Amino acid sequence: MATAQTRTLARTMMAPAVIVLLLWMAVPLAMTIWFSFQNYSLINPLMTGFAGWANYEYVIGDPSFTQSLINTLILVGGVLLITVIGGIFLALLLDQPLWGQGLLRIVVISPFFVMPPVAALIWKNGFMHPGYGMLGHLWKFFGLQPVDWFNQYPLFSVVVIVAWQWLPFATLIFLTALQSLSEEQREAAEMDGANAINRFWYIIMPHMARSVTIVILIQTIFLLGIFAEIRVTTGGGPGYASTNIAFLVFRTGILSNDIGAGSAGGVVAVIIANIVAIFLMRAVGKNLDA
Amino acid sequence: MARNVSTPTKVGFTIAAWAVALLLFAPILWTLLTAFKTESEAIASSPTFLPQNFTLENFAAVQERSDYFKHAFNSIVVSVGSTLLGLIIGVPAAWAMAFAPTKRTKDILMWMLSTKMMPAVGVLIPIYLIFRDLRLLDTVHGLTIIMTLINLPIIIWMLYTYFKEIPVDILEAARMDGAELWNEIVHVLVPMAVPGIASTLLLNVILAWNEAFWTITLTSGRAGTLTAFISSFSSPQGLFLAKLSAASLLAIAPILLLGWFSQKQLVRGLTFGAVK
Amino acid sequence: MKLTPILMGAFTLALAGTASAQTLTIATVNNGDMIRMQGLSSAFTDETGIDLNWVVLEENTLRQNVTTDIATNGGQYDVMTIGTYEAPIWAKQGWLVPLDGLSADAAYDVDDLLPAIRGGLSLDGKLYAAPFYGESSMVMYRKDLMEKAGLTMPDAPTWEFIGEAARAMTDRDNDINGICLRGKAGWGENMAFLTAMSNSFGARWFDEDWKPQFDQPEWKATLDTYLSLMNDAGPAGASSNGFNENLTLFQQGKCGMWIDATVAASFVTGPDSTVADQVGFALAPDNGLGKRGNWLWAWSLAIPTSSQNTEAAEKFINWATNKDYLATVAAEEGWASVPPGTRTSLYENADYQAAAPFAKMTLESINSADPTNPTVKPVPYVGVQFVAIPEFAGIATNIGQLFSAALAGQMSADDALAQAQDAATRDMTRAGYIK
């Protein structure tokens, strides 16, 4: 079917998307790379000229660089862990015969519609604040000292907030996948006398593998750049305890107005993202081939 | 779905599911309740569940301080506009990738996704400079363009996975019948693709609505969206929790309602090819 | 059918509106006084026909947006709200329009501006930003709790007395903390407080050769005193408390003392406060070294050179910072709500003195801050709670994180100081101050 004519047609149809995305990627990236080799401070016009590798040395030499790398991985990994495992359980639960299916689904999906700064503000002020947050009241109710979440468990708190936002997304994808598991397959398994655990491991899990892959892939893309939640809640701290790569770039580039170093950080972040992406593709890519 | 289970089991599952669901919903519910409390009640050391002095003054104060409807209007224009623009560019591309795949199709798809991995904070200054020179700062169309570019990879990927589900035989049968390309698209492809396109549209409206970096940095008042609206209510001087809750509620309400009403459509499509 | 003329009328009005009126875009912080200004600004539009487009943002977001815009010459704003830190630096870059019109306007009376504030907003004798409200810092305390502890607050306390009083007032069972201080990381948050405090301990940021001084005993004494005070008598979770969080705590009666901005005085004695009638004021503490730990700041309005509407912008700034504006606020909300700390005449006004019990202490605090000579030893920089160099914001943001971590108990004071010294040295070397 792939005649020369269709191939030309296909190319023409893809052209706008490819060109637009190519520009979107190449122009800012080229400018960022250019800036990363310049002395460029937003507020100090005296800093000019070619910088060589100085900006890269500066960013990689930042005392928080290693920690922010680790934090990035913990953040991505932690949220993935919670959303994938929690999502599978929740999807299995919602797949059971229940009263109020439709309403339940509406309630469960809701956190996904909340914009990140609002989610962070709600959690920060309404929930995790040791003085007047709901969790604080709850702790006091049980006679415990309220936990100061963002100071005692900064990274964990951020993971919780982000996981809260993404759990519905994972749940819904898993639920769709579960519901496409044909009735015959389930019944056959039940007939064979397979117990619930065996059914889960040998029938359901293999069927879900593909949707797990998709969830991991999509979420990783978004999670690598988590920024609003950190900025609103912990500001990367205390110390560097919740600084990830995106926040480090923000701190060097924007807060310190050092565009040269910020750009170098941006380039480093792109490289890291691509390493993660390649790794991810290797690990899960075969699941994607239909 | 019509599996037969005993009533006690069903009761058990129902209770468990609702417990988890309400736990997930609690932050939103708490915000909803706080929005109708007075400021002092909102941070009282002995908390109340339902507002004791039900008040609408928070909403009045919020509206007086920044024009909710202007921001909401901008949010609607940007999210709907960018999604439509994205579909115009994305549908042909996804169609071509699904029906005339080459060896490189998968790579192109992955490359498109990888454009989403650039950290926004890293390219702020380049984009700001470009926007300044193109006179796009603080314009709704400038924001629309950015949102389109950000979400285009997701749009193409979602559409691609739907289009691939459409059996090629049907298209070929139509082609054999001598149908023109245009007819092929209008009469065969479109009806089959509509659910997919609809859910792509919904998801991208949601993603664009909730984007909170570019919408805040590239606007100043005229083109500000609801994310900028929210930014003026976080931690001012004095008591603010109730007003912040009211503003938060206003900011998420439209998209929450849209999501709730179109939930079936969205969920049906939210697979990204996760289901074979 | 009856609707048609109305619609037509509205349409013509709308057209006329867009055709003739000028629009100013004003970026400001979401603090109470600015929100009040926004509320009153329709009077300005009625008077001049100039429309206002308000961008009211949370402080950090505002600062980032405004800095990005002015540094790239973006031209998004006509009036920007900036502080005493930015004003001289930006003026020096040629980014701000000098407010010569205000200086020439006799009714505006530029000589009425408090000299310390005016000096901080000027470069080479020219005014580049008009102060909207000014502040220093002072001690606010609960008279009832102080009495209960059997102590009397002097007008000019020492750190030793503050420490003693804070520990004596602390009553954990009743959720009363002897002292509330800023702990939230940020150059305008904990670092503003700690830098001002360090001055009274004789510490300085840099020596005459721009070498960071965090490895010196004065800084160690400052941080140790701060940490032990907060551990013994501070509220839980203090490392995320900024101005606003402490304000809330104080208003709810959970703080015995609070050392912070003088503008807070009208809030803690205002209608939102549960302890309004029990608040006393004192000067910021000292250590007998001749310097007090009080700062100097003014939120001010300035015009970026990228603005296309500089004339209208200056008109607006005149309206928002002149004597009539103070009178308008007083008429609408009472004298206590007037933006403080900018004009000598306000402090000579008998009505104001009667309505604002904190007026005298505020003026004294502002007048005692000396930006050109902030600490005991000589320094190469200007600024009390900041160092007026472009690199300061970045360095202090970093160090603020470290000190906040020390308060949260995540690192020791010595580690925090050592890392601060390293970070400051690294950045100052990079910026070329240290050869």
Automatic annotation (TrEMBL), chain A:
Locations listed in the record: Cell membrane
Sequence ranges assigned to domain ABC transmembrane type-1 in this UniProt record: 69-280
Protein family: Belongs to the binding-protein-dependent transport system permease family.
UniProt cross-references to Pfam families, sorted A to Z: BPD_transp_1
Membrane topology note: Multi-pass membrane protein
TM regions (residue ranges): 12-37, 73-94, 103-123, 155-178, 208-228, 259-281
Keywords attached to this entry: Cell membrane, Membrane, Transmembrane, Transmembrane helix, Transport
Protein's name according to its UniProt entry: Sugar ABC transporter permease
Domain of life: Bacteria
TrEMBL record, chain B:
CDD domains for the chain: TM_PBP2 (cd06261)
Family annotation (PROSITE patterns): ABC_TM1 (PS50928)
Residue ranges annotated for the ABC transmembrane type-1 domain, each copy included: 72-262
Stretches of the chain forming a coiled coil according to its record: none
InterPro entries: BP-dep_ABC_trans_perm, MetI-like, MetI-like_sf
Subcellular compartments: Cell membrane
Main location: membrane
Transmembrane intervals: 12-33, 76-96, 108-131, 143-163, 184-206, 212-233, 240-261
SUPFAM superfamilies hit by this protein: MetI-like
Keywords: Cell membrane, Membrane, Transmembrane, Transmembrane helix, Transport
Membrane topology: Multi-pass membrane protein
Entry's family note: Belongs to the binding-protein-dependent transport system permease family.
Name recorded for this polypeptide: Carbohydrate ABC transporter permease
Organism: Devosia rhodophyticola
TrEMBL record, chain C:
InterPro entries xrefs: Bact_solute-bd_prot1 (IPR050490), SBP (IPR006059)
Keywords on record: Periplasm, Signal
Main location: periplasm
Signal peptide range: 1-21
Pfam family, one: SBP_bac_1
Localization (cell): Periplasm
Record keyword Signal present: yes
Similarity section: Belongs to the bacterial solute-binding protein 1 family.
Protein's recorded name: Sugar ABC transporter substrate-binding protein
Organism per entry: Devosia rhodophyticola
